[in-house]
Structures are given as structure tokens and as C-alpha cells.
Amino acid sequence: MNKTTRAIALACMLASPLALTACKKAEAPVANEAAEAKVLTAPAKDDDAGWKAYLPQVVQANMGNITNNPFLYYLPPESDPEFEAKYERQVEAATTAMARGVQKDNLLAFGSPASGRMADLIEVAFKNVPADTMKGVRILFIGDAADNARVKVALEHTGADYVFIEAK
After folding, report:
1. 3-14+43-166 is classed in which CATH architecture?
2. Is the pTM of the predicted complex or chain greater than 0.70?
3. ∠ CA(61), CA(151), CA(163), 5° rounding?
4. Reduced to 3 states, what is the DSSP secondary structure of residue 139?
5. I want to staple 125 with a disulfide (CB 3.0 to 4.6 A). Which of 94, 111, 160, 163 is the partner?
6. Cβ contacts of residue 152 below 8 Å, gap of 6+?
7. Are 21 and 1 in contact (CB under 8 A)?
């Protein structure tokens, strides 16, 4: 799957984090990927549209050896009038997904301008995941450095490959 298709799939997942696509195409080699590398800068905390564009780019840049389509969990800025309802829906969606289990070679990405609340969500969603049942799964947390340590602790028992990306 080429980068454009993957970015479109990620953008679609922002609207529905549990969306699952079964499309797998062989990736075409990209000539001179270093020339395409660019520095990603996090948008302002209240720029919902900016965050929805920024997060798929960060996920794309941190796929590592994962070839399956990633699952992206997103919370809007806390200034959103429906923030609490959206937070509760995401907690329920993430908790349900983790209870079902995640197969190896998948990537879960959690990102939000409300970094502290996303860290809360991760703690709740992963608290009942059995030890070492997520080996081979990559989990990205895109947020503030101040929340990194507690997210790392919340995920340690899962056996997943945890990657922190500071949103700056």
C-alpha cells in the first residue's frame, strides 16, 4: 500500500477508530525516501483539523516493520463542547478492542491535543489486558512528555513494543 493510500486510510480511521480495512497491497519502493522526510510539528492545542491531519503523518512515519493498517484512537481538544462524551466513547471502544485482543503485526496509535486525558484512556483500556498477550504489537503514544512515564507503566505488562512520540 503506498503512502497516499495509507494516509487516506488513517484519515478515515479518525472518524471511526474501530474501522478495519482488509486491503493489503504490495508496497511499491519509494525512490529517495530521505528526500521525502520532513519535520512534523504539532498543531495548536485547539486546532482539531490540524491534529486530524498531523496524527496520520506521525503514524505513517513510525510504522516500523508493521505492514497492516494501523488503528488510530483520537480525542479532540478539551475545548470541544462534546469532549466528555467523545472521551467516554473512545474509552469504551478501546477497552472493548483490548478485551477482544490484538493480533501481532498490528499497530495501535493513541494521540490527542488532550494528552493527559489520552493517557487516562490508555490506563483504563489496558488495565485488564493479560500479561504478555500483545507481543509483536506496536503501540504509539503521541502526546506530552509529562504523560510518557505513566503510559509506559500502563503498557509494560502487555509485552507490546511501546513507542513514545512527543507532540511538539
Report:
1. 3-Layer(aba) Sandwich (3.40)
2. yes
3. 25
4. strand
5. 94
6. 162, 164
7. no
